[in-house]
Structure formats: C-alpha cells, structure tokens
Automatic annotation (TrEMBL):
An example Gene Ontology molecular-function term: transmembrane transporter activity
Chain ranges of the Major facilitator superfamily (MFS) profile domain: 14-440
Keyword terms of this UniProt record: Membrane, Transmembrane, Transmembrane helix
Record-level GO cellular component terms: plasma membrane
UniProt membrane topology term: Multi-pass membrane protein
The keyword NADP appears for this protein: no
Name of the protein described by the UniProt record: MFS transporter
Residue stretches spanning the membrane: 12-31, 51-70, 82-99, 105-124, 136-159, 171-194, 262-280, 300-320, 327-346, 352-372, 392-408, 414-435
Annotated signal peptide: none
Length: 444
C-alpha cells in the first residue's frame, strides 16, 4: 500500500473527516421523508399517493441532468468551492419546498434540492479519493454509513414532527420537511472551515496552475503517482499525454469517459442500486399501511431499513479484500432479490426481510461509490466517472418509483411491482460480475 502524499499528510485530516461526515449527513436526510408523508401530502394537494410517486423521482431526474455538469463546474472553480455552493442551494431548496402555497413550491423546491444533492453525489467520491487516497474503502464506508444513518433519521422523524400540535392544530408535513434541513448550516460551516487553507496548498485558479486546476489540490496532483486503490504506476513524465495541466486533463477525462465501456457498466450498477433503494424506501410505507400498520409505524420501519444500511456500509471496507473483491459487487444484489421476494410472500417475517434488504442497500451504495473511486486511477478520472455514472444511473433509477407505483395501481396489488424490483436486482448481479474485475476506466 502506498503511503499518503506529502500534501495529504500536511493537511489536518480530522477537520476534513468531520466535514465529510457532515456533508454526508445531508445527502439523503432532506429527501427520505417523502415516503412516510405521501398520504399527508396527497391529501393536502388533492391528488392520489400514486401520482405523488413521481415526487420521489424528481431528485433522481435532476441528478441525471445535473451530474454531468458538475464535473465541468468543479474543473472551473474547484471541488471544495463547488460543494460549498451546493450546500447553500440545498438550504434554499429545503426552505422553498416547505413554503405555504400551491404545489409549485413543493415540486420546484424538491428539484432545487435534487440539483444541490447531485453535486455532492458526484464530487464527494472524488474528494475522498483526493484527501484520503490511502484509505478510500474505509472513508467511503464511513461516508455512506453516515449518509444512510441520517437518511433513516429523516424518514423516522417526519411523521412524528408532522403530528406535533401547536395552537390546537398539527404542524403538518411542511414543518416536518423543513426539519430535515437542520444540519445544512453546520455542514456548510464545517466544510468551509476545513477547506479554508486549501488555496495556499493548491491554488484553484487555472492561471495559477498553468492551464486549470480542476479543483484538484496538491494531494490530488501527487495522487497521480501510485495509489492504494489503483496499484503501482509510475509518475508521468513531461511530454506524455497525462502530464498535461490538471484542468486540461480533467476536461479530457470528462469527454472520454462517455466512450468507456467499463464506465457504462459502473453507471448501470449505480442505476440499479439506486432504483432498488428508492423503490422500496418510497413504497414500503404505503405497502405496510395497506396491510394495516399505522403511518407512524410504517415510518419507523422505513427508518429501520435505512439504519440497517449503516451496518451494510461499514461491512464493505471489511469485506472488500482478497478474492472477495472480485465477487462482492454481484453478491450484494442477490441478497436484495431474496429479501424482496420474502416481503411479498412471507410478510410475517417482514422485519427480517427489512433487515436483510437494509444491509444490502447500504452495502450496495457503498460498493457503488467505492467502484467509482477504485475503478479510476486519478481524482480527475474519478470525478469524471462519478459524474457520468451517476447521471446515467439516476436517469435509470428515476423511473423506478414511478414504474413501481404504476404497476401497483394497474394490478391493485404488490406482486407485479415487486417482480420489477426483482428484475432490477438480477440486472445488478450481471453488472456486478462485470465491474468486479480489476481494471480501470480511460486506460484503453
């Protein structure tokens, strides 16, 4: 394993690690409360819960369109600064979504939240690659564990928050949605503080780095040497193509990544894992309510599903080693398919199936983000792969909750929509077999 670069060692890792965790806390919390509140929102807006299934897909659609733009923005102004602005936009969207008025505030606020989260989704794997290149699986596991944990908190607290009474009336779903943004400001402060001195280590302006920094600090530049996740590779000598300025290298990676077969396989893997996650987190509560559980109980079950995902995320750094590295991406969705079948045909063991599905979803997300980092040699190619794979992946995933709800509506049952879920899991297994091989994007 290669030792961390001198620049990486010179930067205090504790503030950076805390900032990464706080950003992770906001990556799901603001959108995970939609499922448990679908019935409330539908009653307030005068539509059916099935129609509101599209609301859960809005962030995914926005992620699909914003993700490929994120890499280009980060090349211009830097990864750290781009994430700072995304947190500001996230705060604005969270407030906008909760404003009283017509449905426009709800939908446009959700779209703005999706745009902000798209930036974090794309850049955080590259940031971890840049600042923790010697511990990518470990930090990625912690990142996804925190992401899942706070997402589950968001799902669990929204229903109780909405039923709090003030002046003889319940505060309602708008107040509950607003409460999911409580950690945005602390995350912004921690992120700005942790990255305040980065410009003195690696200037962010193109003219200061002879052609564009691409938001990559000195740690990223030295990471072009051998990395723990990518094996040994000699530093490029002047005159070779990869010796170009980081900004030019980043722009080239952003274009070439769309022609890379491995990148498309990673993109499908990301899309399948996202579809499996959002289909069940969106529709588990309505499923349980249709079987007689209360709204609050169903919300806590969704929270339980996501809390178990924390353990699944933490398992990846422990399991992703040795011969298991080759097969782990394919094994995870097998567990998801089995548990989805159990939810339909053995509902008396519902908590067991939720436990298994939760563990698998956490592991699947951590595995997908880890693949984004370890299937790329450099932070530039990792950022490009992240933007491309999440754009394609979330475009595929966006149809998941909508298709699931449509199949439920036309069949008046749950067997047909869960058959769709099982088919997506099978597709992820096949993609996992392909991306498990030890190879890298942009190396043809």
């Amino acid at each position: 394993m290669t030792a961390p670069s001198a620049a990486a060692r010179s930067r205090p890792w504790i503030p950076l690690f805390i900032a990464v965790c706080l950003v992770a806390a906001n990556m799901r919390m603001t959108i995970m409360g939609v499922g448990p509140l679908l019935d409330q929102i539908a009653d307030d807006q005068g539509v059916s819960p099935s129609a509101l299934g599209a609301l859960a897909s809005v962030p995914l659609l926005v992620w699909a369109f914003v993700s490929p733009l994120t890499h280009a923005i980060s090349v211009r102004i830097g990864m750290s600064r781009t994430i700072s602005w995304s947190l500001v936009v996230l705060a604005i969207g969270t407030v906008w979504r909760s404003l009283p008025g017509g449905p426009l505030n709800l939908w446009l606020g959700t779209a703005l939240i999706g745009a902000a989260l798209a930036v974090g989704n794309v850049l955080m794997p590259a940031v971890i690659k840049r600042d923790f290149s010697h511990r990518v699986p470990l930090v990625m596991g912690v990142y996804t564990a925190v992401l899942g944990a706070l997402g589950s908190v968001g799902a669990g607290i929204v229903a109780p928050l909405s039923h709090i009474e003030h002046g003889g009336e319940e505060l309602g779903w708008r107040f509950a949605m607003l409460g999911t943004g409580v950690l945005i400001l602390p995350a912004l402060v921690a992120w700005v503080w942790a990255n305040a001195g980065r410009r003195t280590v690696a200037p962010m302006h193109p003219e200061q780095l002879g052609g564009g920094a691409g938001g990559v600090g000195a740690a990223a530049l030295e990471a072009l040497a051998p990395e723990a996740s990518g094996g040994s590779r000699a530093a490029d000598s002047p005159g070779r193509p990869d010796a170009r300025a980081p900004g030019a290298r980043g722009r080239s990676a952003g274009r070439r990544i769309w022609r890379d077969r491995l990148a498309w396989l990673v993109a499908f893997y990301m899309g399948a894992q996202s579809a499996l996650f959002y289909m069940l987190t969106t529709w588990l509560a309505p499923l349980e309510i249709s079987r007689g559980r209360s709204e609050v109980e169903a919300g806590f079950d969704v929270m339980f599903l996501q809390l178990t995902g924390i353990a699944g995320s933490i398992l990846i750094p422990l399991l992703y080693r040795g011969r298991l590295r080759r097969w782990l991406p394919a094994l995870i969705p097998i567990a998801m398919g089995v548990s989805a079948t159990g939810i339909v045909f053995l509902p008396e063991l519902l908590l067991l199936w939720i436990l298994v599905y939760g563990l698998a979803t956490g592991a699947s997300l951590s595995m997908g983000l880890t693949l984004v980092a370890v299937r790329a040699r450099t932070p530039e190619s990792s950022s490009a792969l992240s933007g491309m794979s999440q754009s394609v992946g979330y475009l595929l995933a966006a149809g998941g909750p909508i298709a699931f709800g449509w199949l439920h509506e036309i069949s008046a049952g749950w067997t047909l929509p869960f058959a769709l879920l099982f088919a997506v899991a099978l597709g992820q297994v096949l993609a996992g077999l392909a991306v498990g091989r030890d190879r890298y994007v942009l190396e043809h």
